[in-house]
Every structure is written in structure tokens, then in C-alpha cells.
Amino acid sequence: MNHGNYEKQLSIIIPVYNTEAYLRECLDSVAAQAIEDMEILLVDDGSTDASGAVCDEYAARHDFIRVFHIQNHGQSYARKTGVLSAKGKYIGFVDSDDWITGNMYGEMLGYALENSLDMVCCGLVYEKGTTAVQRYNDAVPGVYDGEAIRREILPGVLAFGTDYSADRKIEPHLVDKLIRKEIITKVLSEINEQIYWGEDALSVLKCVLLSNRIGILGKTPYHYRIHNSSISLKQDARAIDSYQQLICELMRLARQSDELCDQVKYYSVAAARDMLRIGLGIRSEKFWLFPFEDFRQGLSVALYGAGNVGKCYHMQVCGTGYFRRADLFDSNCVSEGVKNPTELYPEEYDKILIAVDKEEVAQSIKQFLLERGIPGDKLYWKKPRWVRDTFCFCI
């Protein structure tokens, strides 16, 4: 692949659409990067708030920032507009409601240049209100080339397995990566601009297929903000057609590679679920599997916890005849069918199952019940197992 000559080492492209409330924080964090040979391209995608004016303000303040004001065509088109005008050897993307910390791009660029990489991946932090969850790439930090990419990275680019996000080798986002310009230009030129959801996963997969050397950094400097205006949280009828086109494109790629076949099937299940959720407002919840294998028939059982896990457990055991008695308790839930813990008399139950997902919550409940004089040998908790839905793939 011809790598060509460039005026810059790095171009950061930021599509902007109605993110006035977050834009200054985003631009300040990117402009603070300690890189001389860098440019920032702001693509104002037809914003109707003050975002465009903020972009112009920052361009006037910094000579390494350029602004493009275009009609609204969506994020893919805005990214492509930036890439086609970029002068950098490597391209990075930032969403205008996110922010970065430290010298993220300095470290990623240095790693890319030192190892002649086609793509560099770091981790990120999912930010939702006061909750922050770090997400590292599952691939071990280091450099992968040739056969190592095919063996270690490619089989886990998309969702796979029952817990469809737990075993990704790299996160399916463009924003936590640096990509050689030739590669991302080719990929974005082929992306259907009518795919509004899932285009990142499709783009990352295609970038992996075109890369000869990929680097993984074990850091999480990118902060991915989730808020009520996020595109994945709003109902939008366009999702019906968009996800259909995404799945068709993924299946076309899967037919070309055995490594992709199974993971594309599982990802398509997740995409179909999101299509229903976003396009039609139909939600799919986790189904928590009651651990029948740990309980003999005929017992009297108390379920402590009336959240998603407890209610799902209770639904499975009520009326089946498997237990002589099964009651649901919770101190924070007042609703029909849920009892207050003051009514939990240990002599009436053979086992008290703590029905929550998180171990730290389970330990807190266990301590509470022990302090109320409930014998420890009656208490039970095991990490719950779950499935989203049951699907059968045709061969």
C-alpha cells in the first residue's frame, strides 16, 4: 500500500451536530494535546444550535483548527468530509460530546510511528452521569502483524457469544483508534451513508481486514459520554432500514472469511434487537436463569431482591410446583407480590436466595440478613447466568 507524503503526522476529525453543551470541553481536551504536527478538523454537520459558532471561535483562536460547515447528512458523511480534507498520515476521530485525557494522541502517534502501524487501539471510559466504567481491549497490549491479526484480533472484532460484549478483542469504535489515512479513506468511501447505527463496528472490521500491523495500548484516555440525546437512546424509525443494510453488509463480509461467520451472526442478533428497540420502541431484557440445579424440589424458598433478577427468578418458580413455597422480599420495593424483610421469618424457609447480579450488593444484603439473625447456612448467592433471547441459526 502506498503510504505517500503528508503535510502533517496527525489529523483529528470531530463531527459536530448540536452538542453546544459539551463542545467546549471536548475541544479544550483535544487542543491541549502536546503534538506540534497535528491538525483538528471540525465538521459542523448542519447544527441548529450554537455549535457552529463555537467551532468558528476555536478556529479563530488556534491556527491548527479548520472548520467545515455542511448541510446535515449524518456522522458518516461528516467523517468522510473530514478525511478527504485531512493532511495527516494518521487519522483519529472524536465525538463532539466526548473528551480525552492526558496526552492520548501523542502516545498513540508515537507508538504508531515507532512500530510502523496501520492502526493503534486504546481503551475508553463509558461515562453516564456519575457512573464511569473503564473498558480495556481484551487483546493483550502489544503489536500484532500478519498471522497474529488473523489469529488473535480478527475472530473477536464484533460481538460474540452469549454475553455479546464480553469477549471482543478490540472495541468496535472509531474514536479510540488511530488509523493510517489510506486505510480509513478506503473504508469510509465504501460505507453506505444510510447506515446510521453500527457504522463504527463495520468500519473497524474493514480496517482490521486491511491492516498489516495493529498496536494495542493498555490505557483508557478516551471518555465516551452517554446521555439522553445519544443517538443509541432515542427512538428513530430510520433504524429499521439502517440495521437491515448493516446486517446485509456484514453478511457479505462473513461469506468471505471463516473467522467472521459466527461473530457476524451473533452481532446481527444484537443489531436486530437494537433495530426493534430504536426503530419501534420494543425493548429486550436479559432473562436471568434460575439455578434449579442447586435446589431440590419441595423446598420453601425466600427470594431477596425484587429487581430484574429477583422478578425473573420469581416468575420462573411461581406456579411450577417445583417449590412448596416461593416468596419475594425487598426493602426498597413496595409493590404487589413483594414482601418487606420484616416479614421474613427464617424458620419458615429452607433457603434464602439473594437475587441480585453484583457480588458487592449480594455481600451487603448477606451482612444485613446475618445481622437480623438469619443463619448463614440458609443464605445462597451465585453469580446469575442470563440470556437475552433464544435464537436458532439456520445452516
Helix content: 25-40%
Please report the total strand number as a whole number. Answer: 19
Name the structural class: alpha/beta
Order of SSEs, N→C? EHEHEHEEHEEEEHEHHEEHHEEHEEEHEE
Radius of gyration: 25 Å
How much of the sequence is in beta strands?
15-25%
The N- to C-terminal Cα distance equals: 37 Å
Q: Provide the residue-averaged pLDDT.
A: 88
Number of helices: 11
Overall description:
This protein is α/β, with parallel strands linked by helices. The chain is 35% helix and 21% strand. It has helices at residues 20-31, 51-61, 75-85, 104-115, 147-153, 181-190, 199-210, 238-254, 258-280, 308-317, 359-371, and strands spanning 8-16, 38-45, 65-70, 88-93, 99-100, 119-121, 124-128, 131-135, 142-145, 177-180, 213-216, 222-225, 287-289, 300-304, 325-329, 338-339, 351-354, 379-380, 385-387. The strands form four sheets. Strands 3-2-1-4-10-6-11-9 form an eight-stranded mixed β-sheet, sandwiched between helices. α1 (20-31) packs parallel to α2 (51-61). The longest helix is centred in the last third of the chain and has 23 residues, at 258-280. The radius of gyration is 25 Å and the shape is elongated.
Architecture blueprint of SSEs:
Blueprint: E1 8-16, H1 20-31, E2 38-45, H2 51-61, E3 65-70, H3 75-85, E4 88-93, E5 99-100, H4 104-115, E6 119-121, E7 124-128, E8 131-135, E9 142-145, H5 147-153, E10 177-180, H6 181-190, H7 199-210, E11 213-216, E12 222-225, H8 238-254, H9 258-280, E13 287-289, E14 300-304, H10 308-317, E15 325-329, E16 338-339, E17 351-354, H11 359-371, E18 379-380, E19 385-387
